[in-house]
């Protein structure tokens, strides 16, 4: 497989071949760094697209009453915002980080399956082109919420639903291939002497995420296939008239959907576990417990899905089981938060942008975790279900969780990618604007949710007006700030203070042993890790 | 340069990579199958636990009527979206002694000038009592065909289990009637 790289007869200097020239470099590349960059740019484009849909939503909700868009279009906006952010922004961003960093972190020359890597990326523009095109079709795009519950997505769906199904299939195939690639790379291409317990936590969390993806993306493919068959081939998986059951849809969907939320957060756990020790100038506290906690979260994610469905009518024993199983997840998650805080404890901390985003991650993700615990309480969930409280909860775990994790990673590794330091002042401005905007946008949603404002509704009662206006102002602030991030990244690519091989004095890992910017080919000769110590719990590791 | 060593090592890697990828692809196929396996699994679970208002199978208990106890059974009829038939029970409710075999008639009328076929889907509430509700005969076991203007009486026979939890005094049997003319044309059903 690696022969593919060697056959790139291109201009080059002593040891490394350079990239091919022109457009074909990007179309045909099998280089993990090129593909990683494409994933990251694609995900940022989707982040802006999904974000502009959020701006439409918040503009309509700025005041009660209907001002800007019709309810039909509003539904398409909430649906597409969710789908694009989950499948187009967060997941590809982490695959991009995996492509760039995992080979560098484990001392591998490239990913294990470079050509499949290229294919899994190029499926994504096709998938999202197809998905977004439905907005311009007669009858409009998907309007049934990102969870596409049957029969809204079957019997009552717009005609374009078939395109949506095909798009989901393409994204699923892309994710599965990406996950197989990551798992094969981690298990087979580690440098000699790099045992599993010497791997950086980002690699560990991605290994576990890879298995989660391989386990649940096929189930998602199955559920959309059943929808396709119900719509076009006369089956009745989800139609009561033919002996099926719409509730079955929710079970199958959430069997995929709950592990999916950990797919979106585990790699962020890994990145933050690299960044906090670097800027605390201390080794990570409790490496081993971090690995086991990640594995425990992944296992538990498979047995809690029905907590999304407390109100559909499941027996009392079922509600109790899913309630307690869900609360159990707080234990390994608490271990992680404890370890991050202990890593910072008595460290000589500095607060560059990656650290700011990581510290905010720990605090705000914990808030999202607590509202999750509230939702896990089955009898209370009957009140919270389908209100803005749920919206507040999952935005608190996804925005300052997944997305702040991605921002932290981007700032942390930008010097390695570009060879330049980013503008620290602007990056801090980006952080504070994002932090304030995000809290303004999502914190009031807890209050309106507890007071009973339903989600996915374009209009609302007068009594929610003030909090919604605050939310909208915060959302606009957060949205505009992301253009600043684009500016910072472009500025960093074009120039800036040259970065040394290891620009962060407290950072650890093989990726800092190669020059900045990382050469096109790295670790053609694997480094020898035999003499490195395995990670041990506690601060003894040096 | 240790190029040879690297190449040999890479070849060894790609062999084990191929095997690993085969295992992972097998896992993908298995999980795709598991998604579909959830369909019958869900049916089994619903039957076993009486979830989702699915009623229990044939009555296995002794046919001893518990005269001392009386349970009120209510009947509901609902038309699914787009269904135009008149569909209602002869009576809204009846008092039932557990263990006794009872019958209720539902009336269906097709007011259109087209033959139509329909399927009724039952549900029992509260869900935890569903496992104690046995239907020995029900119009929902088959599809109905009505000619233009035709009216029929459709029986449901049932037994409420003597083991029904003591705190349940009240059961609801609800039917939703679906128009399945497009899916199953009346001519097809009449031929059976």
From TrEMBL, chain A:
Its EC number is 7.1.1.9. GO terms for biological process: electron transport coupled proton transport; oxidative phosphorylation; respiratory electron transport chain. Residues 1-21, 523-542 are annotated as: Disordered. GO terms for molecular function: cytochrome-c oxidase activity; heme binding; metal ion binding. Residues 530-542 have a biased composition (Basic and acidic residues). Cytochrome c oxidase is the component of the respiratory chain that catalyzes the reduction of oxygen to water. Subunits 1-3 form the functional core of the enzyme complex. CO I is the catalytic subunit of the enzyme. Electrons originating in cytochrome c are transferred via the copper A center of subunit 2 and heme A of subunit 1 to the bimetallic center formed by heme A3 and copper B. PANTHER family: CYTOCHROME C OXIDASE SUBUNIT 1 (PTHR10422:SF18). This is Cytochrome c oxidase subunit 1. It comes from Pseudomonas mangrovi.
